[in-house]
């Protein structure tokens, strides 16, 4: 006897080859019926004997299509006997909006094989992709996710590509960015003035990199600046041109074996490196690796990642050495995405630019992961993850836009029981960064067709994100205390209602008392509020922001406090490095309580201890002394404090 089931699947199931996969599975189990997209995901109507349906359903639950993320699978019985065979039905999908644009997916094994196969028509083609891999969010202009609504609309498929696109048995069936050397995007290498250079773009770029050049590289979600990571002089030059002080650069390596030569990796770090999201993985640097110490001065941590587009794969194979790959921008500005924008903004930084003619619709920086206590923790959630939905345990009553804070900004849009995170925006220090923020919010609202009714913002009135929130008219505004927001987001991540004792050890954040800045906070949190139980004893910052760079001032203030106005300077080498007039100026500031705001940030304790312990009077970027202090302490402590 034939039974029928309707199976509704929600999650990231569009644009990843889910329907053809279902067709193959269904045919394998001799199921009749159809599969189609609806506005929330994919629907299957399946007809067969009960035992077959059960096996089919089990397979869908346990062994899903690569690239798909199933958030929910619901089944119910339906009447009927079903059609002959099993097919993709497009009728119900027409006219409906697809809510789930998938994130960009790293090149799959089969496409990599084609790249290196000299008999394949996509041999060495830098824009090879299929239903399992390739650009997605970064090329999506609008919904539903189909070619006409991506920046691939500018390219008309050749006959061969169209045949693949229309053949349900082909692995490029409905691969929206499908392309080949005949019909798709092409690379061009140009001088810093935009003049095209002769020769094979990949080979020529690789040769220049090996000669120490700095290359602006148009990738998936924006431009990278690349140079030979084993060439100390090239790395120094990149750092100087990018005005990046001493902040570490990430390094792209050609293979897992090459990654192991540069970093000590455990099983979890290896699988993160190989994951489809291909994030930058922060791992312990291996002594004796080939990467220059200029790449990440002062720290034993090295950010490594593997190629995630055919372009990166071809380039890394050609240079056969690790490459620095850092966001293509001047410090504190967003990553470049347009060709002419890159030529303008990277002038004086890049010696040459490797460009292509596929436009980037949405900027997306590389994501960053660190494995902490065996758990992969996302430090920056961007390419490969955005705009994958996150399921909330408690639905929101009305659509919410949360604007985020000032540093390392990221925003979030929540509708019903789903949260969508925007890409990493970065520090909202510059007009360019703020424009990126506005553009990204507008784009996410459009592609998810959400009109927020509630706009949440940081309590700090001066943040550009707060000002943006307050300018949005016709919505309810909700101010959220900075550290409470950190803890509340963890509660949401773990589906936890509280009460929770949350410890937020953070930089500064505007206090709920409206007058002091908070930092290391112990908050008792409920779903809708919190109680401040404790904080760190504040440290004064003589000279305000100057003390963030001249960390010896923070050390001085801490000692002044601990020794009641008589810091034992003579016994600490740190203060030999500070001119006597500067020391007495700071002493007077503390004595008279002039220009010495109080900070609660735990980071200031690390700054102070690091300065004293390491004898380092200055810090070139936020966290530098703390990182060095952490490195110095590593492995040396076997007991609890
Ligand atoms: Zn592929
Ligand atoms: Zn083609």
Structural write-up:
With 641 residues, this protein is α+β, with helices and mostly antiparallel strands. α5 (201-210) packs across α9 (310-319), α15 (552-562) packs across α16 and α17 (602-614) crosses α18 (624-633). The radius of gyration is 27 Å and the shape is globular. The model is unreliable at 93-98 (pLDDT under 50). The structure holds zinc ion (2 copies). One zinc ion (ZN) binds at residues 157-158, 160-161, 179-180, 182-184.
Global shape = globular
- The Rg value, from CA coordinates, equals 27 Å
State the helicity in percent bands: 25-40%
Briefly note the structural class of the backbone: alpha+beta
Number of strands: 27
- Count every helix, treating DSSP H or I runs of 4 or more residues as helices: 18
Percentage beta strand = 15-25%
Mean pLDDT: 90
Largest sheet properties = 11 strands, mixed
Ordered list of secondary-structure elements with their pairings:
Elements: E1 3-12, H1 18-28, E2 32-38, E3 41-48, H2 50-62, E4 69-78, E5 86-88, H3 109-116, H4 159-166, E6 187-191, H5 201-210, E7 215-218, E8 223-228, H6 232-242, E9 250-252, H7 256-262, E10 263-264, H8 267-274, E11 280-285, E12 301-305, H9 310-319, E13 323-327, H10 339-345, E14 352-356, E15 368-372, E16 375-380, E17 389-391, E18 400-402, E19 412-415, E20 418-421, H11 431-447, E21 454-458, H12 464-471, E22 476-480, H13 482-493, E23 500-510, E24 517-526, E25 529-535, E26 539-540, H14 546-549, H15 552-562, H16 580-592, E27 598-599, H17 602-614, H18 624-633
Bound molecules: zinc ion (2 copies).
């Amino acid at each position: 006897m034939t039974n029928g089931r309707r199976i509704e699947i929600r999650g990231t199931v569009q644009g990843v080859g889910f329907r053809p996969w279902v067709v193959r599975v269904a045919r394998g189990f001799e199921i009749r019926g159809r599969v189609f997209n609806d506005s929330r995901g994919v629907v299957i109507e399946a007809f067969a004997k009960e035992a077959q349906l059960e096996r089919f359903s089990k397979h869908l639950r346990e062994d899903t299509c690569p690239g798909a993320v199933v958030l929910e699978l619901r089944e119910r019985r339906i009447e009927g006997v079903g059609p002959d065979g099993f097919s993709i039905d497009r009728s119900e999908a027409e006219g409906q909006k697809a809510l789930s644009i998938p994130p960009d997916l790293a090149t799959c094994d089969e496409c990599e094989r084609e790249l290196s196969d000299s008999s394949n028509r996509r041999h060495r083609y830098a824009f090879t992709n299929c239903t399992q891999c390739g650009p997605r969010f970064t090329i999506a202009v609008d919904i539903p996710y189909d070619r006409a609504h991506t920046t691939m609309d500018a390219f008309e498929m050749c006959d061969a590509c169209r045949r693949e696109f229309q053949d349900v048995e082909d692995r490029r069936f409905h691969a929206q960015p499908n392309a080949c050397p005949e019909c798709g995007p092409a690379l061009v290498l140009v001088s810093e003035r935009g003049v095209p250079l002769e020769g094979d773009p990949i080979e020529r770029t690789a040769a220049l990199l090996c000669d120490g050049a700095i290359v602006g590289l148009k990738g998936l979600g924006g431009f990278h600046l690349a140079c030979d990571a084993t060439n100390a002089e090239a790395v120094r030059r990149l750092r100087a041109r990018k005005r990046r002080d001493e902040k570490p650069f990430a390094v792209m390596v050609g293979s897992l074996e090459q990654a192991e030569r540069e970093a000590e990796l455990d099983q979890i770090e290896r699988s993160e490196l190989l994951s489809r999201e291909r994030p930058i993985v922060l791992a312990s640097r291996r002594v004796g690796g080939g990467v220059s110490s200029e790449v990440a001065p002062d720290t034993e941590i090295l950010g490594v990642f593997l190629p995630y587009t055919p372009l990166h794969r071809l380039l890394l194979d050609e240079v056969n050495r690790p490459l620095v790959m850092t966001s293509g921008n001047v410090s504190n500005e967003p990553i470049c995405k347009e060709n002419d924008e890159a030529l303008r903004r990277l002038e004086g930084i890049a010696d040459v630019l490797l460009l292509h003619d596929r436009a980037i619709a949405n900027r997306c920086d590389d994501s960053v992961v660190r494995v902490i206590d065996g758990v992969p923790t996302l430090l920056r959630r961007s390419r490969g993850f955005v705009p994958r939905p996150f399921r909330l345990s408690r639905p929101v009553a009305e659509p919410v836009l949360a604007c985020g804070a000032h540093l390392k900004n990221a925003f979030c849009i929540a509708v019903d029981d789903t949260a969508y995170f925007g890409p990493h925006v970065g520090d909202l220090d510059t007009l360019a960064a703020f424009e990126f923020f506005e553009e990204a919010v507008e784009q996410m609202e459009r592609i998810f067709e959400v009109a927020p009714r509630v706009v949440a913002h940081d309590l700090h009135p001066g943040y550009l994100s707060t000002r943006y929130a307050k300018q949005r008219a016709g919505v309810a505004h909700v101010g959220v205390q900075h550290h409470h927001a950190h803890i509340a987001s963890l509660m949401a991540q773990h589906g936890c209602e509280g009460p929770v004792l949350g410890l937020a050890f953070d930089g500064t954040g505007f206090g709920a008392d409206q007058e002091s800045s908070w930092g290391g906070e112990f908050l008792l949190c409920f779903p809708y509020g919190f109680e401040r139980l404790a904080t760190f004893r504040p440290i004064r910052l003589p000279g305000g922001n100057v003390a963030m760079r001249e960390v010896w001032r923070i050390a001085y203030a801490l000692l002044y406090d601990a020794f009641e106005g008589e810091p034992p300077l003579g016994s600490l080498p740190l203060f030999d490095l500070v001119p006597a007039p500067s020391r007495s100026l700071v002493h007077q500031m503390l004595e008279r309580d002039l220009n010495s705001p109080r900070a609660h940030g735990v980071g200031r304790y690390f700054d102070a201890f690091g300065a004293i312990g390491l004898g380092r009077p200055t810090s070139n970027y936020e966290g530098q002394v703390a990182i060095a202090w952490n490195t110095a302490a590593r492995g040396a402590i076997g007991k609890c404090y």
